[in-house]
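Sorry, can you check?
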Amino acid sequence: MNSRKLALLVVGILFLLAGIVFALQGANVITGSSLMSGNSTYIYVGAVVAIIGLALIAWSTMVGSAKSKAAQSQAPQPM
């Protein structure tokens, strides 16, 4: 796994986890002294952040595969 793919995967996972925490705090599932607790705005913010995280995770799986498919299609075929 190359470093770019790994970095995208790690950032995607962090965004996904942060989005889940934001949404749960906004829904008042995770309570505490945070200003986010019980604030419904953070449900939507968390959902958007989580979706961005999922997109980054998906993109990290496609980064290497597109290059390898292009390399395979350019390779001469044996006769």
